[in-house]
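ok here's VOC domain-containing protein:
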Amino acid sequence: MVSRFAQWTLDVRDVGVMAEFWSQALGYEVVNRGDDGSAKLFPPSEAEPTIWLQNSGGAKVGKNRFHPDLVTDDVDAEVRRLEALGARRVDVGQTGSEPFVVLADPEDNEFCVLRRSPRG
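and the structure:
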């Protein structure tokens, strides 16, 4: 038996802003849970992991050691769409020849948009 990814949990300061960003970015449905203000985002497919946003109260410090990589058919158009939602390009030491674009969400959590499938 092996483990598999079931959920991506992200500590955030503003659950509402982050739920709006990630639900729009990924096409997930937002479902709020409990009195603690956390939110769970459900994907359109059972095969994809859910996202749990929990209030951390504190600001992010340093570069993420774990981040999601997104795939799409038109990377340039998707990057423009994500930037319109509140993402921004960030420099984590890229050379410019990488097969991905590094972005940060509205609370500076890094993620990548891949120019090809990780299996390609």
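+1. The longest strand covers residues 7-12.
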